[in-house]
Model the fold of this input.
Amino acid sequence: MTNFKLTISDVKGKSITKELKDNDANPLLGLQLGNETDASIVGLTGKLKLTGGSDKSGVPMRNDIHGAARKYVLLSKGVGLQNAEIGQRVRKLMRGNTISEEIYQINCKFNGELPIEAPTETAASP
Done:
């Protein structure tokens, strides 16, 4: 029962959200941040680069923490720490860089341009 919400952004800054469930989400399990995977799992042609994500509690993934576990780490800057003053360090709960079943949202970068989805028109005949 694996469910992922993929937020896919392209080179022009446009982003879309796709939801993967069960067998469709299995190819992503075990991948690490920074890895590339085939975009055919979401119906696109090209490559997806995994850039980040968060778990079901909203704890962000961090590239420099190995594994899939949640850990308290001492941060001075970067992902998960905002508005830090110079010299300030804070111990925060972070998730590792490996995708597991606890991950809820995955952020990806698409190497091409996302297709434009035309809105469906419901025109009434006069």
Remarks:
- The radius of gyration is 17 Å.
- The longest strand covers residues 47-55.
